[in-house]
Specification:
This protein has two domains: 26-55 and 290-388, Aspartate Aminotransferase, domain 1, CATH 3.90.1150; 59-288, 3-Layer(aba) Sandwich (Aspartate Aminotransferase, domain 2), CATH 3.40.640. The protein has helices at residues 5-19, 59-72, 87-100, 111-122, 137-146, 156-163, 187-197, 219-222, 252-261, 263-266, 273-288, 290-310, 329-341, 371-388, and strands at residues 36-39, 42-46, 104-108, 128-132, 149-153, 171-175, 200-204, 231-236, 246-250, 321-327, 344-345, 347-349, 359-364. It is an alpha/beta fold. Helix 12 (290-310) packs parallel to helix 14. Strand 7, helix 8 (219-222) and strand 8 (231-236) form a beta-alpha-beta unit.
Length: 389
Amino acid sequence: MPDDPFAAMLRPLLRARERQGLWRQREIRESPTGPWVRVDGQTLLSFSSNDYLGLANDPRVHEAFCAGARRYGVGAGAAHLLGGHTRVHHELEEQLADFVGSPKALLFSTGYMANLALITTLATRHTLVWEDRRNHASLLDAVRLAQAQRRRYRDLAGLRDALEGAAPGGLIATDGVFSMDGDMADIPGLIALAADHGAGVIVDDAHAFGVVGPGGRGSAAAQGLAFMPRLVHMGTLGKAFGVFGAFVAASAEVVAALIQIGRPYIYTTALPPAVAAAAQASLAIIRAEEHRRTALRQRIEEFRAGAQAVGLTVLPSCTPIQAVVMGDAHAALRASEFLRRQGLLVLAVRPPTVPVGAARLRVALSAAHSADDVARLLASLETYTKDRL
């Protein structure tokens, strides 16, 4: 009998991942989030962060965090329902609801937990849940945890066909902005199908809140939709907000149900109050400083125009996520390693996160990037492309 049964069980799997170019490893960052970072002793121009508006290192957000820590300490000390729910949590929830235009909002520690809570609260093993094939892992895992009946669709036409003949009701779940492709879901089209079928719609807007739509209010607002009871939003605070945490914006009934029976909400310690205070400061900046989104749009346009001129294969996207398709996992790794030698941090995304044959460089742009930063990245990508010919 082996002395270490775990090693004996896992070693073949781990060796296979190495051979396939799918080995994942962590790097140690030694600096704040920003366009320039220090990683494993090397200073790099980074295009790997979801800090889309450049708020993670904003001094106003820092000060709000410190003030929150001075007032409330560095931890909540308990779950929301056991004394961990503070005034600053409550105020942030009210402000987020107002920002989205929904009756209520509810804070979570992570977007993953928010999605788990949403679907396990709104679905049972008898519920049909239709999911876009590119949805984030948290939505996929939530359906498994709920033991609901999952149906995956490729596009709006595929969903329309899948709904025909199905019993009325159920849920449609989608990313608002797809985290690996960068394009936006057709929310009005999904709402129309849901209305015809009597279904609810859950939108994971992690990569849209603060970035797209009027005032940065998200993918639904970007497509002309106001709040409606049929639509539930999930947004995160660790991307455009530059902080940490997540929230659900929905009707009073949905939020009440999450508080009563949402296990990932009930059975976990509340977000540190200092983090909530920092998120309040971020939200105020997001509301007031449209120039950040303007700068971000300029960087996106510059990158896409330059990528087209260089001849790169870039997926359609008007968001900060720009996917440069490289093909197999080894090709994406080689491109990432080349850019690293040029002083650029651009990470390779490989299966199973993306389909086999669609491994890519995931370029994440920020309002904190300059036009020169984007030009430097494009020049290095052009050099790499020419060297491969």
